[in-house]
Amino acid sequence: MELSLPELSVADFGQTRDYLHNVAKVLGKLQQAFVAAEQPDWHYGLSVVEVGLASREISVGGETVQAVLDMQAGVVRLGGTQWSLEEYDAAAIMDNLKVWMQSRGENRMIATPEFGLNGTFELAQSKLIGAAFWQLASYCLQLSPNLHPGLISPVLVYPHHFDLSLVWFPNNDENQLSLGFSTGDETIPEPYLYLTTYPEPPMFKQLPLPTEAHWQTDGFSGAVLIYAALQSSASPLHILNNYAEKTLLAGAPLLTDS
Prior knowledge:
This protein is of the alpha+beta class and 258 residues long. The protein has helices at residues 10-34, 90-103, 123-143, 227-231, 236-257; strands spanning 46-49, 52-54, 58-60, 63-65, 67-70, 75-78, 81-84, 151-152, 156-158, 163-169, 176-182, 192-198, 213-216, 222-226.
């Protein structure tokens, strides 16, 4: 596959990221109201689609619908109705979804999420964030067939932290490796990729990393690859493959031995 990563400048996209993060939380709560709890907790995650993020299909008033956060068009869509993100923030989207449900005879409780910073919406930045999610989700899907044996999660964006994640359970037990992409947080303010294990085997941090990556010990424990270093490289796919090979694939035997 080709890897074409958009440039993400925290100074430019941060406000839009916060805005989209809150809207994603709304879609997550909508999905959780209709989808039975799963183990692992995959019912919390939204699917990555080419235009943005999407809930699972749900049945409302006899109609099968899907909620979509379209980052390319700047709207939330549900059952043929859409709301502009330039006009409606997350709280207003939540109210609109409830009214839409009630108009179709659906009165089930949709929990109100804990919203974070409000942010402001800018379509150009929304498109870049959506493109980054799509490119990295596509990479994870291409990588999944190489992860065997064991259980592999779907590639999902979890609204609570607004991060993309692929989880591999090599032994079909609680031992797991997670490859993910964060748009930035309190620990690392800029976008980054991460590889973490649970529980972490003693020898994990002795694995050699590609020069672009480093071991993170403050805030969480894992191998971190800063997105800007990947995006600005002349060969991002080579770097990402090297990163996955030296962490995800090399880390699995350590879990087997633990």
